[in-house]
Write a structure and sequence with these properties.
Number of domains: 1
CATH class: Alpha Beta
InterPro entries: NAD(P)-bd_dom_sf, SDR_fam
Protein name: NAD(P)-dependent dehydrogenase (Short-subunit alcohol dehydrogenase family)
Family: Belongs to the short-chain dehydrogenases/reductases (SDR) family.
CATH architecture: 3-Layer(aba) Sandwich
Radius of gyration: 17 Å
Strand order of the largest sheet: 3-2-1-4-5-6-7-8
Structural class: alpha/beta
GO molecular function: oxidoreductase activity
Keywords: Oxidoreductase
Length: about 260
Amino acid sequence: MGRIFITGSSDGLGMMAAKLLIQQGHQVVLHARNQDRAEEALQANPKAEAVLTGDLASISETIDLAKKVNKLGRFDAVIHNAAVGYRESRKIMTVDGLPHVFAINSLSPYILTALIEKPKRLIYMSSGLHRDGDSSLNDILWEQRNWNGFQAYADSKLHNVLLAFAIAEKWKDVASNALEPGWVATKMGGAGAPDSLADASLTQVWLASSMDPEVLKSGGYYYHKKPRAVHPDARNTGVQERFIDKCAEISGITLPE
């Protein structure tokens, strides 16, 4: 059985994935934004090994979270599940002066990936909306464009795929994959979402724990455990490198080779 860390696991798909992995006998460490959410996370999954706190909207708190993870030792898998949705009708800025959606959805997975000791598997939660993302990366911080919450979310989900594929290219000893759960009735997806909520967390659980030969590959993108087409520029190594470079510049953290 493995040790698995899941960001954003106090509710939604992260909480559901944690529950399934614990039922399978894995040691699961949860993550919540603050202590109140941490207590909720443990109430939902009382058999979790631990719950760590950190606000992923803050670069310093994300760095501290990585340190907390490393203090617990090496993990077999890290699931980058935490995200905020596409309903931010105005541009919310973080303490670091970054758009809220970018800080949580795009930059925090990069920082955690760079700083957490390399696990055997990395799983990045994307979305089918990533295909609408802007691959030019010309205005990644929304300094020139008029704010559009939907587009900011789509961009961030493309960033997740770019990061997953970049890691697959760079770290040959790590299986790095991305997935889309479908449009499901979570707090983010909304009550009217049409896809199966019960099935939505199964793919991240599969990628984190299965010995299926498909899972042991790297650089895949999946929906309901099946490969799915990605944004036409997602496998462009030049675009991947540009995203990595921008994250390094913004965060001051270099991705290890």
